[in-house]
Amino acid sequence: MIHLLLAVIYLSFISLGLPDALLGAAWPSMYGELGVPVSYAGAVSMIIALGTVVSSLQSDRLTRRLGAGRVTAASVAVTALALFGFSVSRSFRALCLWAVPYGLGAGSVDAALNNYVALHYASRHMSWLHCMWGVGASVGPYVMAHALTGGLGWQAGYRCVSLLQMGLTLVLFVSLPLWRVHRRGEDAEETGPALGLGQILRIPGAKAVMGTFFCYCALEQTAGLWASSYLALHKGVAAETAAGFGSLFFVGITVGRGLSGFLTLRLDDGQMVRLGQAVAAAGCAALLLPLGERAALAGLMLVGLGCAPIYPSVIHATPAHFGADRSQAIIGVQMASAYVGTCLMPPLFGLIAAHVSVTLFPGYLAALLALMTAAHETLLRRCPLQSGAAG
């Protein structure tokens, strides 16, 4: 039963990743058809992020009331509906409208699943589960590229991913009884009232971990959203080819998280984060140097490899930093902070690309990485990992 539930959670993480890179891959083809400037991708990304902020902040209350299984199934259903809405959109306004339920669904499932795994599974499983997210995020651009090169249009790419999400929704609802395996322990961890935002902010280290997530997801989503446009507009790569090449960042994340699962047997969560930051810095350097298209592609993959261990390691360390009884509340505000970063920073780079130059893309990533490193070091000083936190 436990292993079957783990398989369902793996599928859920693939589902989380599938739509995440679609907008960035499709946007070089979308913005002209919709009749809007290239920078408007940031507006869609911002609406999605705002929805995720709202639902993430409510995740503690929702999960205590409904349980992680029901929250996950309902959230994936909402996301599937929103993606279908994207596929039938013929205007930028319609795209913005469907971005609202997409964001609301994504935030709830992300917070609920991450806390469930942090509490009940070892660090290696967190890395491998987020590797499955990378599988989804890597497959998404290829689905979109196939739709574009086949002359089917970006709508067909969204429709295909929507159908996959609908299939997963059915699997999740059928599997709801499996989530009762851990329910007794979950009940013990969920006693007491849900924490308010003000109470959470007063917990030592909470602001530092929020800053870490803000910068990390700003980095990840900026890379995912603008990599294809950077290659097309600065490196001269054709839009259809750039859609596929943009997925190299997510390929790097996927491969890196697969390897990270084995490295967690030797390194604790804090060491994994530091290793990832070093590799990401090397990738930013490769992008900054004027070494041509191949170096840019290698840099994208290195940034992805570096990002790989950071998110799952910080999430998995949350109960060790703050205690199991507060982990769902902390993870909720972590997700909210992450999506505030997603909301603000990729659109900001869109304005920079439109009004200054898209060539600033590597430097922008490097600045976000430096800020994230500083925030995480502050977290480690204020809330040292408890003994045995390596998982």
Q: Radius of gyration from the CA trace?
A: 19 Å
How would you state the average pLDDT, rounded?
Answer: 81
Classification by helices and strands? mainly alpha
Number of strands: 0
Q: Quote the beta fraction.
A: under 5%
Descriptive report:
The structure is a single chain. The protein is mainly α and 391 residues long. 80% of the residues lie in helices and 0% in strands. The protein has 19 helices and no strands. The protein has helices at residues 2-17, 22-34, 41-57, 59-66, 68-87, 92-120, 123-149, 154-174, 183-189, 197-201, 206-233, 239-245, 248-263, 269-288, 293-307, 310-316, 318-322, 327-355, 361-382. It is globular. The model is unreliable at 184-191 and 387-391 (pLDDT under 50).
Q: Which features does this protein show?
A:
globular; mainly alpha; 19 helices
Short description:
The protein has helices spanning 2-17, 22-34, 41-57, 59-66, 68-87, 92-120, 123-149, 154-174, 183-189, 197-201, 206-233, 239-245, 248-263, 269-288, 293-307, 310-316, 318-322, 327-355, 361-382. The chain has 391 residues and is an all-alpha fold. Mean pLDDT is 81; it is low at 184-191 and 387-391.
